[in-house]
Amino acid sequence: MMSITKAANKIGPLLALISVFSLFAILGGQKFCQLGTLNDILMLSVICGVAAVGATLIIISGGIDLSVGCTIAIVTVVIAKILNVKFGEEYIVVMHPILWPLFAIFIGIICGALIGCIIGASVVGHVGRVVAVLMGLLSIYWIANSGISIYIAVLIGIAVGVILWKINDLTIGKTPLPPFIVTLGLWASLRGTAKWIADESAVYPDVTSINKHSIWIYSIMSDIKIGNYILPMPGVWIWFFLAIIIFLMLKFTRFGRHLYAIGSNVNTARLCGINVSKTMIIAYAIAIACAGLAGVLRFAWLGMGDPTADMGTELLVIAAVVIGGASLSGGVGSIGGTIIGTLIIMIVYKGCTVLELKNFVQEIVTGGIIVAAVTLDQLRKRKAFNK
After folding, report:
1. Could you tell me the end-to-end alpha-carbon distance of the chain, in angstroms, rounded to an integer?
2. Which of 215, 256, 252, 216 has the alpha carbon at shortest distance from 234?
3. Are 135 and 161 in contact (CB under 8 A)?
4. Mean pLDDT score, 303-325
5. CA dist 61 to 69, 125, 269, 327, Å?
């Protein structure tokens, strides 16, 4: 039978959700307790929730990711740039109003996955190889822009990448880096890259108002109206569908079991034959691909590419996972808890808005909830250690 302590750990976030909602229901009264408010809470939760589902994988493995907000920003810019591509004198999105936005979405998610691979490879010790690949790609870009044939640029870029790769293997070798440092560095670099791609300004899809309606991507973050009823936007269903997939992955696959093992004790996991490097790279790739999907949703919300978007979202994402019961030390966490944590944060935000409280009140309350969640996690671990 499940012990009382374990049961409390599992239902703790749910009890917190009920308590927070009840508090604002009492304080806000009818103004808070209406379907419109609940719909707003779900709407506010979508982007943070999608990114948090992915971040759960990283935190379970004992890692951290501070690049979420920057990834979302760069994905919005990439999508806007793709939608602005022309074939001759006509926009491709006008010629292919379904396929081209789908392609833009695909590239946005792939951008997130590639960023995840870069972070994961750097964390497990392949930062030299990452630099080699990036320098090879940059060499191709610089040489091609100088007017030299693209074929020559590609050959030179490959040569640069291979040489730097070999130099790294012969000198530096494998050098693991703390995920906090890696993602903190990319926190600045990715934001700068987004501004570079966007030429330091917002990027709007340059289509007419008539053609704008053919870009169905905007409808992802719009309510569904059936008669007098309003259903949650498609983004909400995307969030829950993604959560189910990641939940099943963690619960029933070898990858999920390996992730928990690595977070609990990486050395023991390695001795048990788990390929820690491969597992971590995959975890970061999947997790930040989710941030890429969050970037798609942000673009659908804004209708433009914004290199300054989602500053601070990474902190809300980490908070959602921790409030949901995950341990920053790794080895503990669940998708259900992350969803609950996200809803708690957004209930606080919406509740403070309904009560017409200042923004700093919401920030203080959210910070207090985070500290309380981490404190409970530390007390739980100390109790387990004393046993």
Report:
1. 18
2. 216
3. yes
4. 90
5. 20, 16, 11, 10
Residue 1 has pLDDT above 50, yes or no: no
Band (pLDDT 50/70/90 cuts) for residue 139 is confident
Average pLDDT of the chain is 86
Residue 287's nearest CA partner among 48, 76, 45, 56 is 56
CB 74, CB 194: distance < 8 Å: yes
Q: Which residue in the block uniquely carries the two structure tokens 């309904």?
A: 354
Radius of gyration of the chain (CA): 22
d(CA 103, CA 98): 9
Q: Per the structure block, which two tokens stand in for 188? A: 């600045």
- As separate numbers, helices (DSSP H) first and strands (DSSP E) second, the chain gives 16, 4
Q: Say if strands 224-226 and 90-91 run parallel, antiparallel, or are unpaired.
A: unpaired
CB neighbour list of residue 116: distance below 8 Å, 6 or more residues apart? 281, 284, 285, 286, 287, 288, 289, 291
Stated pTM of the model: 0.90
DSSP 224: E
Q: To the nearest 10°, report the CA torsion of 26, 50, 255, 375.
A: -40
Classify residue 359 as exposed, middle or buried by CB count within 10 Å of its CB (0-12, 13-18, 19+).
exposed
| Tokens representing residue 16 in the block | 């917190």
Strand stretches in the chain, DSSP E: 86-87, 90-91, 224-226, 229-231
Q: Give which of 304, 310, 345 is closest to 324, Cα–Cα.
A: 345
CA torsion angle 119 124 129 130 (round to 10):
0
Angstrom distance (rounded) from CA 146 to CA 153 = 10
Determine the longest span between alpha carbons in the chain, in angstroms.
72
Tell me the pLDDT band of 261, cut-offs 50, 70 and 90: very high
Tokens of residue 134, six digits:
């990036």
- Kindly state the helix (H) or strand (E) to which residue 334 belongs, with its residue range: none
Selected residue with higher pLDDT from 119 and 139 = 119
Tokens of 73: 């920003």
Element (H, E) at 109: helix 99-124
**Is the sign of the CA dihedral 305, 231, 16, 4 positive or negative?**
negative
pLDDT of residue 385: 54
Q: Is 217 within 8 Å of 97 (Cβ atoms)?
A: no
Token pair of 295, please? Answer: 């970037």
